[in-house]
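Reply to dn_fold:

You asked what the input looked like. This is it:
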Amino acid sequence: MLTIVGGLRSGWCARHRWLTTIVITLSTILASHLTALTEQPNRSRVKPLANGIYLYGETALPNVVGKEYIVFERIGTKVRGAFYLPRSEFSCFYGQFRGPSLDVTLFDPFDRQKYNFTLTVNSNGLTASKQPKNSQPAYQPLGKISPNDLRILAACKLQLPN
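and this is what came back:
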């Protein structure tokens, strides 16, 4: 019995570390984008995303184990979606677009904590950083949305406020 409880606790710790890593990574990427905007005042504006379902990934290939993906649906300025790792858990979020920025509240499914951060849409993908040296988007757009992406999105839409 002690082994099972220990295994559950270590599983929870791993999930908590994973969620903490997501929040830190997203926070880190945002600052670089904000720095890039202030350093490049003549930068052209990015066309905002239309209503619809979007998928972004750390890689251009879908469903790569160990890579993180973001699936979300935009309706007006409101967004609901999830961060996920294929064949693993996912964390739901909701938010609102303010121009090219997406203010997000992420729910930790294990400790029920909320984490706030901002994603920014640019012509190459999504960024969210505090690393001024890193100007590359962390997530690039992927065209095809799989049935699994839709399943994850549907599960989050049931859990999240409208």
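The longest strand covers residues 90-98.
Hope that clears it up.
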